[in-house]
Design brief:
The protein is built from 20 helices and 22 strands. It is α/β, with parallel strands linked by helices.
Amino acid sequence: MTDRQNDQEADRLAAEAAAVLQGADDRRRRGAFFTPPDVAAGLVGHVVRGGTVVDPACGAGVFLLAAARRLYEDGCADRQTLVRRCLFGADVDSASVVATRRILATWAGVDPDEVVGVVVGDPLRDSSSVWPDQPPDGFDSVVGNPPFLSQLRSSTARTDQDRVLLRERFGSLMGAYTDAAWLFLSVGLDLLAPGGRLVLIQPQSVLATRDAGPVRDQLATEGRLVGLWLDRSGVFAGRTEVCAPIVERRTRAGGLDPEVLLLADRRVEPAGTVEAPVSGRPWGPLVASLLGIPTVPRAGPKTVADRAEVTAGFRQHYYGLVGSVHEQTGSNDDRPPLVTTSAVDPLRCRWATTPCRFDGHRWRAPVVDRAMVAERSPEVAAWLDRRRRPKLLVATQTAILEVVVDPVGDLVPLTPLIVVESEVDDLWHLAAALSAPATAAYAARHSVGAARTVGRIKLSAGQVADLPLPTDQRAWDTGSQLAERLHALGAGAPAEVWLAFGDTMGRAYGVHDESLISWWWDRHPARRDA
């Protein structure tokens, strides 16, 4: 067969293998999904520069095939030499290994048994023994799309035995919610030769979540982030939103880190540069410009924590209410309302006007029997009693920050609502600050990757506490009055009042920018309801 015929047959086999492997139930359970060949080729083009290439979770071999073509086009060696000596891969699934060997062999015109670098193995357990013939100084490139195994989903949560084994190997890199995909970044760094580069597709959670922090810090210490791909085109639509860091292993300690090249969407094209990240900081702000999030300077040194206590419930506070929630029986029912995230709109509580779900049931006006909570879970009851004070309830997974004011203190917050408790005189000022366009943009930039979907804001209680307060007191006072007026108007608040609030709070933060107001208003639920 000619090289062209080998190319065509290899592509056909790759598509066939991907369809078979993608449809396997165990592949979905293990978080392994097919990468389109054009995406793999685009990413490989920014990493592979000769020498040896390894994919530590090769799947159907799409990355190794792209790497083979890149090496061949660059004149590194003939096809047969490349697949025999330069390409390495591993997968825990033997069918994937068989498929990858066959695809590479077809492309090179050799027997699959000659593709000796692709083996059955688990580099997460012990990468040193997976490839006995690996280069002594490390591989020149690491590529791939490792499995995404979120620990927030029962279908992909690891077993107790897996946790013990991984903690023994990775130590402080392992947290309660560490995704296996993040650990492959650490493995990839270990496999790299000095000066070599890696690119591994990741869930966007790697950019911002707390438990990914130790891995980000390791990459910044032992390597340097030279590129970052963010997909906005939905390549993996219906599964998860993805990104891919490009990391170069340091040849010596220290040195000036270069700017980070931003790459975007399915074409993996350059979309600008940003300053390299500071160790200990999330990477989400690096790609904020690709998502159209405005840049806002941090205001003065004062934060929400200077004027309020900020807390949030945990799983036990959620489940401690199970069996103690009932439907309100009438206007004389004095049991406190249970407020869920769905009941929180900007400066408006939709309790009893919008149905919600809790404990597998649909509720119209849910209320909490405190006596039942105290009988079943005294600790949860005590926690709820401490929340019986003036407060704000801040929703999560929202397009902008959405805050409900509870001046009486009788609303019961359901996890994951964040609770901001202050003196009554500070409530409306804090509500205005948290509802401001500048605060939404600041929070959005610093939480990219933390939410379930891109374009949503997800903050922890500690991050809410650290949000900056305005510096122009007079404008803040006016914004506070407008916030109280908007609360009173409820669903009938006209757009011009909201825009006046946004403009006023822009002055309060020293950010009088029409593009910021436009960005905020485009995402605002009140515009949707107008």
